[in-house]
Task: structure prediction
Amino acid sequence: MPAMPEQPEGMPCWADVTVPDLAAGKRFYGELFGWTFDEGSAEYGYYTQAFSDGKKVAALAPPMPGGEEWPTAWTVYFASPDVDATAAKVREHGGQILLEPMTVGDFGRMLIAQDPGGVVFGVWQAGTHRGFEKKGEPGSFCWTEIATRDPDAADAFFPAVFPFGVKRMEDPAMDYKAWGIAGETVAGRFKMTPDMPAEMPPYTEVYFAVDNCDEAVATVTGLGGHVSFEPMDTPFGRISGVADQQGAKFALIDPKTTKGDMPTFT
Result:
């Protein structure tokens, strides 16, 4: 397989989920998305990559030793040419480093951080692992957005840490901004609404593309997962918020049903 190109700085380049029961996670996502998996090794904490049509699309992992309290959740990683430099920017602009920059064999370097409003995200500096080999197609990552109760903090923090262009979505019903890199709209920032439960922490939503949103939601519930919000039509596709049977939240989208365009960046 030819080497994957370098990801521009700030591009969402990878996603993984921490699950208490790795075998159960593989059964769930294998059935839902048709993923196959490699065999994670003890050297790397049984970190298990997922494949769609033989291409890397995500990973599953049990909590790291001593990290049993780590939340059951999906994490999105933004590309960086220098993780240590990005860590310095995170601190400079009021964020926290939850997992200090570390080398992962020859695969690359990583960190886990939190913005001033509490949103957790990852940063990845590619070595031999370049990130997603498939995006925007059924069974693969399609979109991500930051959901926060402190949009002012997120708006100041993320474009200072990454080279994001920012455009506000013209929708009076919601406070939403799109982020762009190198002419491509790559992520969004969403202000959590008052009707969301007060105990719900800020989070990063990971969207996976599916052929049929309603059928995929039925599969989720049939596998013991949960529905956060039922399938609904949006200008950008039919979407639904769900969680796997261990509680990790994510979203499903059928991008074929899109009727609108995201902002353009030059």
Q: What stands out?
A: The first strand starts at residue 12 and ends at 18. The two ends are 31 Å apart (CA to CA). The chain has a mean pLDDT of 91. The CA atoms of residues 42 and 63 lie 12 Å apart.
